[in-house]
Amino acid sequence: MRSPEALRLTRCLAALCAGGSLIAGVPAWAHHSFAMFDRTKSVTLDGVVKEWQFTNPHTWVQIVVMEGGLPVEYGVEGPSVNTLVRVGWSPTTFKPGDKVQIIMNPLRDGTKGGAFVKAILPNGKVLTAGQTPG
Amino acid sequence: MAGSRKTSEHSEPVAGHGKLIACVLVTVCIASGVAYGQVVNLPPGGPTPPKWSSLPDWNGMWERDGDLVWDDRIAPGQSQAPPYNPAYAKLARSQPTMGPVGPGMPAMMTMVFPLEIEINPREVLLIGESNTVRRIYTDGRRHPVEPLPSTTGHSVGRWEGKALVVDTCCVKANVRLPGGGPHSDKLHVSERFSTPDPNTLRDEITVEDPEALTKPWTTVKTFRRRPDWEPVEFDRTENDRDTPAGRTRGQAYPAPLEAPQPLPADIKIATGAEAERLQKATAMAVGALAWEGVKVFNIEHAAAGLRWEAATRSSRLRCTAKPDGSDSECER
Predict the structure, then answer these.
(1) Closest approach of chain A CAs to the CA of B53, in angstroms?
(2) Looking at domain B54-225, does it have CATH number 2.40.128.20?
(3) Per-residue confidence of chain B (332 residues) as pLDDT tens digits?
(4) B135-154 residues touching A, CB cutoff 8 A
(5) What structural domains and CATH numbers belong to chain A?
(6) Residue ranges of the domains in chain B?
(7) Nearest Cβ partner of A25 from B179, B330, B332?
(8) Would you call B253 an interface residue with chain A, using a CB distance cutoff of 8 Å?
């Protein structure tokens, strides 16, 4: 496994957030500021996929993690469908019940969620936002 | 008109009829108050569309190359803000980047998402994945006499050989410029589209706004042909979790990020078939990145796979992949 602070999504996150703090000169429709995520921190979630929302403007993995014996749900936000489709993702990339490890940059406000960095499947397969098909 | 008496009026039945229709149309237009502005403004003698056979084949999907910035020619770390006059610079600082309407012109030409192009003698259609359609009329018509401002404005173009020269007016004042800043209703965009090679489309853009800018604001955008792509709908209302309280809109033209270290002069950029494969593998790992703009170097081969370094205008990446280039991963 690579260093947890690895920032894999340089351009994908630009596509995800078009964040003013990330890249100057964002498009006029820029969706929201990237400042809400703490890009200096990586959080690893070991859990079970509850729902995979392959949707726009952003995709979301809803993952349930056991914390202190209680199930806690996180929403992890990823790039848009048109960005992901072109690097091999699909509506079935995650399925409810899948055991996955997800690494994210957490929300600064402590809300249970963050920006998707990568996922590691039980078979060891690593998904960045730009997973190579096959 | 219904009488049987022969008059000179009856010798011109079409013209007389035309006057009546025009009269009715004007009445309807005035009554509705909107349609008059979009009446086609053809030159005397009618439309002058080019021949089908003279048109280049730009039809299909094009991925925008370069960074998500206004001008890739500006070094990373330098401001991408338009040359605003003090009043508009202040206005830009006082507002968040999201306009009430978008994406329009010229931001549509600088978006991260691809464009679909369809060409016929009458017009060139530029179709964005959020289903924004921009029409560039090439049949000789001029801007409307009574322009009705819209998100994409009103574009007229003429073919100069295989290049398309375009003039755009009438963009709604509440459509934000690339980067999120404001403009006035004096906004005017000039463009020249050309294909230095069949798979590369250049758009040279000049934005003028005498009320907001101190000088023309220019850029060059490059698009790469993607014959194996189909449009993928981007409906931003589908699952938008943003709420006014929950999210912070970005600031227009924030202080630029620190520029990455320039590549050492002695780096040898790889070329050839393997380099192209790794450029594509890098683009796959990063996403929303046209592979043509990626430089790869320091390629290492090992039994476990490939290792290489890559650079874009603003990023330095270290990448790995299986020996065949699949399962690529890149990190900063």
Answers:
(1) 33
(2) yes
(3) 333 444 343 444 444 455 555 544 444 444 444 445 578 999 999 999 999 999 999 999 999 999 888 999 998 889 999 999 999 999 988 876 655 445 789 999 998 789 999 999 999 999 999 888 999 999 999 999 988 999 999 999 999 999 999 999 999 988 889 988 999 999 999 999 999 999 999 999 999 999 999 999 999 999 999 999 999 998 888 887 765 444 445 677 877 777 777 888 899 999 999 999 999 999 988 888 999 999 999 999 998 899 999 999 888 999 999 888 888 888 87
(4) none
(5) 10-126 (2.40.50)
(6) 13-38, 54-225, 273-331
(7) B179
(8) yes
The CA distance from A16 to the nearest CA of chain B, in Å, is 10
Tell me which chain A residue has its CA closest to the CA of residue B289: A11
Which residues of chain B have a CB within 8 Å of the CB of A85?
A: 232
Q: Which of B67, B233, B328 minimises the CB distance to A132?
A: B328
ipTM, two decimals, is: 0.78
Q: Which residues contact B289 (CB under 8 A, 6 or more apart)?
A: A11, B282, B283, B312
Q: What are the DSSP E strand ranges found in chain B?
A: 60-64, 115-119, 123-128, 133-137, 154-160, 163-169, 188-197, 200-208, 217-225, 295-302, 305-311, 316-321, 329-331
pTM of the predicted protein model: 0.81
